[in-house]
């Protein structure tokens, strides 16, 4: 990407990148034939199954949702028997974890999503797919650092271009 004299990427290239990121984001809400979970329940369960119990606040932060939104989504997941609240000994029930039914539904829908991803990765071939995954990881890490600098939580300069 071309960088101008002001140190910023050209607007047309930022718009193109933003468009591709939006396309990826829309895939989040794709309905897969045979799926049993709504997208919001899948995303909550993804975190709870793959990374372990979380508080409501942790889920809101990690999913970048307002606390009221995540509260509604978690309440719906609890109502469907997918998620449960539990307490650590001597504490109020503040943590959330998947139920057995939630874990099974997540694994079921995860297999449906994985089949589609796998097909796309096979189409790219192993070398391109490997580069894409490495580049996405690097981009996400750079974006995390840029957000931290913008919010004032990280004052380290960006690493030099490779």
What layout of secondary structure does this protein have?
Layout: H1 11-27, H2 39-51, E1 54-55, H3 56-63, H4 67-79, E2 83-86, E3 95-98, H5 100-124, H6 126-151
End-to-end Cα distance, whole Å, is 14 Å
Mean pLDDT comes to 88
> In which range does the helix fraction lie?
55-70%
Q: Report low-confidence residues grouped into runs of 5 or more.
A: none
For the largest beta-sheet, the strand count, sense and barrel status come to: 3 strands, antiparallel
Number of strands: 3
How many structural domains in the coordinates?
A: 1
Brief summary:
This protein has helices spanning 11-27, 39-51, 56-63, 67-79, 100-124, 126-151, and strands at 54-55, 83-86, 95-98. It is mainly alpha-helical. The chain has a single domain, classed as Arc Repressor Mutant, subunit A (Orthogonal Bundle), CATH 1.10.10.10.
């Amino acid at each position: 990407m071309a960088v101008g004299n002001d140190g910023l990427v050209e607007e047309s290239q930022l718009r193109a990148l933003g468009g591709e990121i939006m396309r990826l984001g829309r895939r989040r809400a794709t309905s897969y034939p045979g799926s049993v979970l709504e997208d919001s329940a899948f995303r909550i369960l993804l975190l709870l199954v793959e990374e372990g119990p979380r508080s409501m606040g942790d889920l809101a932060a990690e999913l970048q949702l307002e606390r009221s939104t995540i509260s509604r989504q978690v309440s719906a997941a609890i109502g469907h028997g997918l998620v449960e609240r539990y307490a650590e000994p001597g504490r109020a029930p503040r943590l959330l974890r998947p139920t057995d039914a939630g874990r099974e539904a997540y694994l079921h829908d995860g297999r449906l999503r994985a089949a589609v991803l796998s097909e796309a990765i096979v189409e790219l071939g192993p070398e391109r797919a490997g580069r894409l995954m490495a580049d996405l990881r690097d981009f996400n890490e750079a974006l995390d650092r840029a957000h931290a600098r913008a919010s004032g939580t990280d004052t380290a300069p960006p690493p030099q271009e490779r």
